[in-house]
Amino acid sequence: MNATNKNTDTDGLGLWRPDFIYSIVLFLVAVIAIAYTSQTQGILLGDYGFTTAAFFVVFGLFTITTGFPHPGFGHVSFDRVAQVASILVLGPIDAAWINGLASFIYPWHRLRDGTDLRSVITAACNNAGLMSLVILLCGSLYEYLGGPIPLLSLDLRTGGLLLLLMLSMQLMNDLGMMIVLYLRGISPSSLLNTFTTAVESVSALIAVVVALAFTTSDRVNFALLLVVLAIGMLVLKQYALMRHRLEALVDVRTEELRLQSIELQRQAHHDKLTGLVNRRFVDDYLRLQLEAARRQNIDFTVALADIDHFKQINDHYSHAIGDKVLRRISQILLNRCRKTDVVARYGGEEFLLCFPDTDAQCAEQICSQMRLAIEHTDWSDLQSPGGEEIKVTISIGIAESSDDSRHTTILGEADSRLYQAKHLGRNRIISRD
Fold first, then answer.
1. Per-residue pLDDT of the chain (433 residues; tens, 9 = 90+)
2. Are residues 68 and 189 located together in one domain of the fold?
3. Does residue 83 lie in a domain region?
4. Does residue 148 lie in a domain region?
5. Which of 11, 42, 55, 261 lies most in the core, judged by the most C-beta atoms within 10 Å?
6. Residue 217: inside a domain, yes or no?
7. Does the annotation mark 263 as catalytic?
8. Which residue, 203, 230, 259, sits at the end of a domain?
9. Range(s) of the domain holding residue 408
10. Are residues 136 and 244 in the same domain?
């Protein structure tokens, strides 16, 4: 699995991004490690020369190219086939620089896709450095423990060492990728994917077959194996791409359903015309707040507000104008409430206002500002040219909770005082009997 970065550099950090610095350091460490070990052990010391090295470079590039996007991060490929096979044929030092070279070459094609140069350098150096070190260290451990190079046959002991080689490469590769994720602020859990892990595990097993065929079969049979292997990789790549597209489609659909669910919940609790919470929501809210007020011994006040002569507005000017009046009054009420207050459309032209931790005197002051704002609002834009001037006022009844207040009793008190305000001439507030 390789790191990718297709985003342009828009965060202002330029070349000093942590992942860029890390990739350069990792690449230099890998170059130094290969140079040091090759001085003492040499390069291409076996029966194979640079033609074999060139084959594994090309083979490595092919196995990387026949990859697919990781669902969470990076690029999943069959490069483990070339990596493990080259270890078992050439040894860890040659396998390290050969696969490191292939990993370094591959990301540069992204420049044609519009990827910025820094991102390409980051991916090339990180992938080359990580792959080289993984192959060098894990391959050297395999060789140190007695793993045969070149691989000519299999037995139980060799099988155990090969399993150790595969597991150590997988763990070291994952650790390196987690470091990159950490530096980019991405959760390491995005690496977890059963399908991609299975692909990399199967690739390591295929690599053993490739190594055995390379060292023990004639070139014709080995070429046929490569053809079959290439076809299998391409087919699996298409399957993985199709699976990736289906997963992306499922994710999009799941997100759409989540948003629809949120919207349905919002619609269930909000009035469509005004956007205020509706009676269903505020009745439940009122019960909870009354219980909290009794339990915590704090004040709680409600106000019932009703638009004066609203039926005449509908009859004289039209229901469309009446709807506009309702929406504008809703905004006036909301704008003059505090963040802790709740405004609900309780009926046709009736509103319920809830004031937690507020006594009746304070609630009356807030409601007075609302009443005056509505009375002095310019409604001329709603009337027809030369038509009769629209006047809108509101009446309000206020009730404060007590130790024995219930949902119905406090609303009954507020409704009774609203009726008094209507009876006394409207456009007023009544907060006490």
1. 555 654 444 444 455 688 889 999 999 999 999 999 988 776 765 667 788 889 999 999 988 888 666 655 566 778 889 999 999 999 999 999 999 999 999 999 888 888 888 889 998 999 999 999 999 999 999 999 999 999 999 999 999 999 999 999 989 988 888 888 888 777 766 566 676 777 777 888 889 999 999 989 888 888 888 888 888 878 877 777 787 778 778 878 887 777 777 666 666 788 889 999 999 889 999 999 999 888 888 999 999 999 999 999 998 888 999 999 999 999 999 999 999 999 999 989 999 999 999 999 999 999 999 999 999 998 888 876 666 778 899 999 999 998 777 778 899 999 999 999 999 999 999 998 7
2. yes
3. yes
4. yes
5. 55
6. yes
7. no
8. 259
9. 279-430
10. yes
Give the global pTM: 0.57
Tell me, yes or no, whether 75 and 205 share the same domain. Answer: yes
Question: Residue 264: inside a domain, yes or no?
Answer: no
Instruction: Say yes or no: 39 and 182 in one domain.
Output: yes
- Identify whether residues 217 and 72 lie together within a single domain: yes
Q: Answer yes or no: do 381 and 285 share one domain.
A: yes
Collapse the DSSP code of 300 into the 3-class scheme (helix H, G, I; strand E, B; otherwise coil) and give the result: strand
The single residue listed with the structure tokens 């493990």 is: 84
124 and 182 housed in the same domain: yes
Cα separation of 28 and 32, whole Å? 6
Find the radius of gyration of the CA atoms of the chain.
Answer: 37
